[in-house]
């Protein structure tokens, strides 16, 4: 969508073997709370988060908000031990960030420190459908196709953008990319209005517009997409210890996704070449546990790189004509 918006002269086709609701992005809780990428400078991560927050905040403040599945949500991140970093890098991007008061902490007798703030949440399947609708409105083609390797696209397209998520492990043989399996529950509990996240990152309760996401797990190098019933019970128990009213949650649906994890998002150009023929590629994958939090910022950078590829192609074709 960013490419179609910033380079209106190019014709864009989305190729994917699966579309919503069958992607990792459909499983995500969609909360805007960044995860740190150890291999990326903090100022860059902050910029990506800020651009994403600003983009979604504008949607939240528009008549599109409920169709796009975007809502503002207030709540608490609680810690059993006070973290080294009391002020995370994103504290001045979310709204109203402050330490929790003693009165608020009374709700969490096992925790001794907490942060209260307001952030945004995407209800992922509606948001993805809303993005698809906007893509189609700008004339973008959507085709179901599994790509075995990027070079197979060279005769049909001038530039390829690789947003394959965990699929990039096989597609481009990236050994630095690994799955972190996550199981979550999507439940009906409309009385839960605030988010609660344990600062250890394992247990969270995220109310969306229609359903509450309860998490979670982080299992490195597990490729299994099958829900585990023992884990479902464990997630429910952990969430109920933070919010006991969840014992009354109904219509529990279990989802599993593989976070496309890496030291840093791979956001760079590469030129593939065979027998003197060149194919410029822009990679944009490896968003791990924080893809929603930075999606618009990384997409803007990918679109800028596509712009550079277009300029290089135009330069080389005018040189060829000379
Ligand atoms: C349980 C869980 C909870 C999460 N919660 C949050 C959260 O609260 N906040 C947050 O910011 N992030 C969260 N995330 C992380 C987020 O889901 C990911 O970072 C994000 O979804 C990655 O998006 P993506 O578009 O790169 O990958 P995907 O959504 O997997 O999309 C990749 C697409 O590429 C296609 N594809 C792959 N290989 C090929 C191929 N060879 N040929 C054709 N098509 C191909 C796939 O079919 C798919 O459509 C969570 C993740 C999980 C698992
Ligand atoms: O950690 C969170 O708050 C939610 C999330 O991003 C994940 O489970 O990957």
Structure description:
The protein is an alpha+beta fold. It has a single domain, classed as D-Amino Acid Oxidase, Chain A, domain 2 (2-Layer Sandwich), CATH 3.30.9.10. It has helices at 2-6, 24-27, 42-60, 65-68, 102-105, 124-137, 168-171, 229-242, 291-321, and strands spanning 13-16, 70-79, 95-99, 113-122, 141-144, 160-162, 178-188, 195-198, 204-207, 212-215, 219-220, 250-261, 266-274, 277-285. Strands 2, 3, 4, 7, 8, 9, 10, 11 and 12 form a nine-stranded mixed sheet that branches. Strands 6-14-13 form a three-stranded mixed sheet, with helices on one face. The two termini are 34 Å apart. The mean pLDDT is 96. Flavin-adenine dinucleotide is lined by residues 15-18, 23-25, 27-31, 146-147, 163-167, 171, 182, 184, 215-216, 257, 259-260, 285, 287-293. Oxaloacetate ion is lined by residues 29, 31, 33, 182, 197, 201, 204, 215-216, 259, 289-290.
